[in-house]
C-alpha cells in the first residue's frame, strides 16, 4: 500500500491518527496543574464582606453624625422645670462628690439650700464643693465623711449630724455601687446590698426623727430601671451561695424601690414623703468596676444621659410643688414611671423591712 505523505495529508485536511501513548509508563503526559479558582473565589468573597462591613460602619457613622442632635435631645430626657426656691432649707445628699449626686447638689445650692454632701472620699468631696462654689459663689455647701459600707461610720455620721444640724428638709439617698467584684462591707454584707440598700436604710432610720420634726420634708431614693430584673433572694441575700455582679446590682435596686414604698406607707400622715427615682442610663463613673460596661458606655455615649441630665428627676422629686403630698411612687424623666410586679409586692416589702432591721440590729416599727 502506498503511504500518503504527511504534508500532502495536511493539505487535503486529512487527519492523521495520533500515535498511541505508551501505556507502560505510569507518569502523566504533562504535570498536574492545581485548580486555583476556589481559593480565588474565597479571597474575593472575604474581600467583599470586608468592604460591606466598612461601608456599613461608614453609613452608621454618617447617620449618627447627621442625627446626633436629635439623638441627644431624646437621650437627655425631661428636664426639671420647677423654679422652686429652697432658701432656709437643709438638704443631705449621699455620694455627692461625683456624677448625678454632684449635679443635684449644685442645682439645689443654686436654689438657696444649705447642701450637706455626705461622701466616703472627703478629698474628692471638697473638690466637688469647690467647683460648686466656683459656679455659685454664694452656695452653702459643706462636706462630711460618710462610708455607707461601714455601719459604725453611718452611726458616727448621724450622731454628729443630729448634734450640729437642727433641721433636715430633704434627704437624697443617692450613693451607690454597680457591678463590683464580690466584696463584703465592714459588717460582712455583700457590697451591693450593704451600700445601696442597708447603708441607706440605717441612715434613714437614724435621721427620720429629724425629718419628721422638720416637716414638710422629703426623702428621695435613687433606684434604677434595673429593678425590673431583680429578685429579693431571701435564702441567699448576700450571694454567699453564688454571685453575679449584675444580678446583685439589680437586687439592690429592687430593694430601693421596696424600701421607698414601705417607708412611705409607714410615714403616712407625718408630712414626710418618700419616692424612688430612675435617673436614666447615665454616662458616669458608676461603671468603673466593669470594663465591658465602661467601653460600651464610651462607644455609645451619644445615647446616654450626662450626669446633669441624669440628676433632673432627683431634683424634680426634691423640689416640685405638685409633689408635696405624693408619696410611695416611682419616677423617671420627671414623670411617674412603671414599677415591676416584684417591686409592687407589699408582702415582699414588709419581709425585706423585717430582714433589714434584723441584720442591722435595729427595731423600726
UniProtKB/TrEMBL annotation:
Instruction: Kindly report, in one word, the top-level EC class recorded for this enzyme.
Output: oxidoreductase
Entry-linked Pfam families: adh_short
Q: Which SUPFAM superfamilies match?
A: NAD(P)-binding Rossmann-fold domains (SSF51735)
What GO molecular function annotation could you give as one example from this UniProt entry?
all-trans-retinol dehydrogenase (NADP+) activity
TM helices/strands, residue ranges: 48-68
| Keyword Transport carried by entry | no
Biological or metabolic pathway of the protein: Cofactor metabolism; retinol metabolism
Enzyme Commission code: 1.1.1.300
Catalyses which reaction(s): all-trans-retinol + NADP(+) = all-trans-retinal + NADPH + H(+)
Q: Which domain of life is it from?
A: Eukaryota
Keyword Transferase listed? The answer is: no
Keywords, sorted A to Z: Lipid metabolism, Membrane, NADP, Oxidoreductase, Transmembrane, Transmembrane helix
Family to which this protein belongs: Belongs to the short-chain dehydrogenases/reductases (SDR) family.
**Protein name in UniProt:** NADP-retinol dehydrogenase
Organism the protein comes from: Oryzias sinensis
